[in-house]
Design a protein that fits this description.
By secondary structure, this protein is α+β, with helices and mostly antiparallel strands. The protein has helices spanning 2-16, 40-51, and strands at residues 23-25, 60-63, 66-70. The chain contains two helices and three strands.
């Protein structure tokens, strides 16, 4: 759910201000494990979804695990944002 919401926010930002730099600021309240770190869902959201996928459509991201992260090699953010977000379980094949 959070991944879809963030994706839609980025798509909306592109529609409202095409070509403008997009910066994501994300605060996370709760979602902690017994040790005080983030639970598995919030780690996956930050590491794999935001940094591993969504970052290509952003100029910068600020979140608990990565404050002030800019695009590697300062390349421009991609404007080629997909129309839809498809989320698959690990190991799930396309077309199922």
């Amino acid at each position: 759910m959070a991944a879809r919401t963030l994706f839609q926010l980025v798509r909306r930002a592109q529609r409202v201000s095409p070509g403008a730099q997009r910066v994501l600021y994300l605060d996370i309240d709760g979602h902690r494990n017994r040790e005080g770190g983030f639970d598995a869902d919030m780690l996956e959201l930050q590491q794999h979804f935001i940094l591993g996928f969504l970052m290509q459509f952003l100029s910068e991201v600020n979140m608990p695990l990565a404050a002030g992260v800019r695009r590697k090699d300062e390349s421009p953010q991609s404007e080629d944002i997909p129309e839809e977000l498809t989320i698959r379980s690990p190991g799930e094949q396309q077309g199922r």
